[in-house]
Amino acid sequence: MALGEVQINYYDNIAQIYDQTRWLTESVAEEVADFILKLVCATPETSFLEPGVGTGLNVLPFVKRGYSVTGIDISEEMLDQFRQKFNETPPNLKLIHADASHLPFSNHSFDVVMTVHMLHTVSDWRVFLDHINRVLKPGGFYLNCQWITPPARKELEDYFRAILAKYEDAKQKSKHINAVIKKIDVEEYFHSRGSKSNYFVAKEWIVKNTVKELLSFFRARAYGLCWQIPDETFKIIMNELEEFCIKHYGSLEEVLSSKAKFEIWAYRAV
Ligand SMILES: C[S@@+](CC[C@H](N)C(=O)[O-])C[C@H]1O[C@@H](n2cnc3c(N)ncnc32)[C@H](O)[C@@H]1O
Prior knowledge:
The chain is of the alpha/beta class. It contains twelve helices and seven strands.
């Protein structure tokens, strides 16, 4: 089975726990939306596209404020979670169940295209960026965004990886995922076309979770680094991680608190 297929199918499995296991809250998303609307000098007619829209965490504020929003996602379950945020899908929201590797829109269709944590999932990221350039209106914005993992969570991920590294079967697969992720260079793509990014931190906020909660997210295999590990190995790794956490943090009730960031690399259409 190709790596892409495994990743794509997995979002169907975690759609129901996606929002609770991530750290972008609705109120933070509202503030990020304020920032983006200023950045792109939005008018009431400004239109947004988010390929890999998922459960709509990033674009929900735009929909609520009446902007035209289109989302594409390969996971029907993720789109269903987004739909469930409304009594009825509003007329300014269009959700398309499709592979976003080839964007099914005519040229110059959108004022703003944003992607968040999804470039590694398309079949060819350069072709995908060609599509983004094509569907953007002249002078439109491509916003390559990420919500950086809060350091306390990253630390736990690193402990997980360190234990994982002892198990050959699981390690090989996770190495393959990292190799795929590392090759993407959006900056180089736009630079070679004469466009430079502007970097912004749209919002910083504090995220708090108990160690117990974070371990439960791992146990539910909410994150990509857990997906390809065989069940038996995964159980062993999680037991080791829990034992390690009890010693390291003193208690599973310990609250880990650290700062998250919503980062944006903004490009004008070329
Ligand atoms: C990490 S999630 C990010 C979701 C959302 N952008 C966010 O920030 O919460 C990645 C999303 O991309 C979707 N996805 C993966 N491959 C895709 C593809 N080829 N075309 C469209 N969506 C895809 C997944 O189903 C998932 O909803």
